[in-house]
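Why does residue order matter? Because the sequence determines the fold. Keep that principle in mind as you read this record.
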Amino acid sequence: MRERLKERFEKVRLYCFTPGRLADDPISVAEKQIRGGADVIQLREKHRTKREILEIGLKLREITRRYDVLFIVNDDIDIALIVDADGVHLGQDDIPIEYARPLMKDRLIGISTHSLEQVKEAVEKGADYVGFGPVFETRTKENPEDTVGIEKLKVLKEICPVPYVAIGGIGIGNIDKILEAGCKRVAIISDIINAEDIEERCRRIKKILDSS
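Structure:
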C-alpha cells in the first residue's frame, strides 16, 4: 500500500488544508478546494479539541475517498489511524519519524523542514515526502520560522530524492517563482482560503501548475 500511495503523491501538484481559524466550516472549504483541483487535503485545525478534529476527520475521509484525493492528518498519529487517513504530517517538534513509522506502517509520513540539513535528515530517516519552507514570509503561523528563500529551494531539485512541497507565503502572485526554481508542488493556505471564490482560485492555480 505504501508504494501505491507514494506513486500517487508523485503526481501531487496542489496541496491544500482545512482552514483553521481562517474559516468556520472546514468541510465546505475542503470540498471547494477539491472541486477546484486540490490533490491533497491536510486536516490542520490546531485551535480545536481532539474530539472536534476527529469528527471533522471522519467526514473528510468520506469526502476525500469520494473524490479520490489524498488525505493527510497534521501532527496527530492517533487521529490519522482512527480515520484511516493516507498519512500523517509531522513537524520538527512532533514525534520523530522512527517512532511514528511502526505505528503508521504503510501509510505516508511527511515531515516539515526549514533547512537543507533537516531535509537530508528527514530523507535518511524514511520520510515519504517533505514540506520545505517558509519560502516567503507567512502569517499563517503565530511563530513562523525564518524564510528559506528561492535559492535553497532550487538546491532541493539536486539533493532531495523524495517529493518535496514548497510552502509559506505562496499564492497566485508568486507561484511562478516556485516553478522557476524547479519545484512542481506547492502547499497553499491563506491565498486560497481567503479568496472570494475558493474553488475558482484553486482552479486557476492548478492550471498554472499543470501547464508548467
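Residues 50-67 form the longest helix (18 residues).
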